[in-house]
Amino acid sequence: MVIKLSAEQLEYMAMYEKISGASVIDCVLPEKANRVVFVVRRGDISMAIGKGGMNVKKARSRFGRDIEIIEYNEDPKEFITKLASPARIQGVRIVEGSGKKTAYVNVHPQDRGIAIGKEGNTINKIKELSRRHHKIDNVVIV
Q: Which residues span the domain enclosing 111?
């Protein structure tokens, strides 16, 4: 799958790879949040975070934004579960119909707000990265 990235996203990815040594495969800059979300190659999560969170702290200082690291997973259900963390996910069901894929994410009732996020930031991140990496057209919190 080809992911179109802006010059700004490519710059952030290159800088984070240099800071951490991890392979960054995607970067999202949510509009409403002062954060950078990096998706790293499976197996690179420890390297991306660094000992005691050192690489995240260094990047936060350099970028002036909060940093979020997500480990890529080929399994869309596992990927969505990681994207929704720290919300407690009770299951993910992917339904295909009319040429579209929808992921239904069953969230512990007390964690619905966490899964949606402030101003919808978390659910928007989940939708965007699920679409980009697993061709999922919509994500619904249930």
A: 76-141
